[in-house]
Design brief:
The protein is α+β, with helices and mostly antiparallel strands. The protein is built from 3 helices and 7 strands.
């Protein structure tokens, strides 16, 4: 009886164990899958970091642009002056990341909606004519409509914010148009 029980236990051990071929196949599969999975995690991590930094850079650009527009409303000039070729710039540190920004004030010479894709928010207040003349609606009470025919009164105010993401430098740009009625 003893010999019969040894035979059944040897058979059950053989069925419960992996063969050398099965072990090698599993190791080969893991050698292929693990590096691909790790690379996928790295790509997802880089995309997440880039998205966070882009969002922060956009907030910086909007803040600087809003400050420049408010300063423009108070002083009627945005530094640097139009066409000077100069730009204001600065650096903002957020943890280990350095965000470099520059503010540019440039002339804008596209005045028709077909060139810009712009649509006035209130059609009765802003109208673009074929001649490049822009009507901004009625002026102060009792005055005639304000019309701009000189394209030089439009200025493009732009803020570029650059920041590093791993081995690359990315840039976010926020732009707005200003109308200088003092010209």
């Amino acid at each position: 009886m003893k010999s019969g029980s040894n035979t059944t236990s040897a058979v059950s051990r053989r069925q419960a164990a992996f063969t050398l071929v099965e072990v090698l196949a599993a190791l080969t599969f893991m050698a292929i899958v693990v590096p691909v999975a790790i690379q996928g995690v790295r790509v997802a991590n880089r995309a997440g970091v880039a998205a966070q930094r882009k969002a922060y850079a956009a907030r910086i650009a909007e803040r600087i642009l809003n400050e420049a527009v408010v300063a423009n409303q108070n002083t009627q000039t945005v530094q640097p002056e139009v066409g000077s070729g100069a730009a204001q710039s600065g650096v903002e540190q957020a943890g280990p990341v350095t965000y470099r920004w520059s503010l540019r004030n440039e002339p804008w010479n596209q005045t028709t909606p077909s060139q810009t894709g712009l649509t006035p928010t209130t059609p009765s207040q802003t109208q673009f004519n074929q001649s490049g003349t822009v009507s901004l609606g009625n002026g102060p009470a009792g005055t005639s409509p304000v019309t701009i025919s000189d394209a030089n009164v439009f200025r493009q105010l732009s803020v570029d914010v650059s920041f590093p993401v791993q081995n690359a430098i990315l840039t976010v740009r926020v732009t707005t148009l200003l109308v200088d009625l003092s010209q």
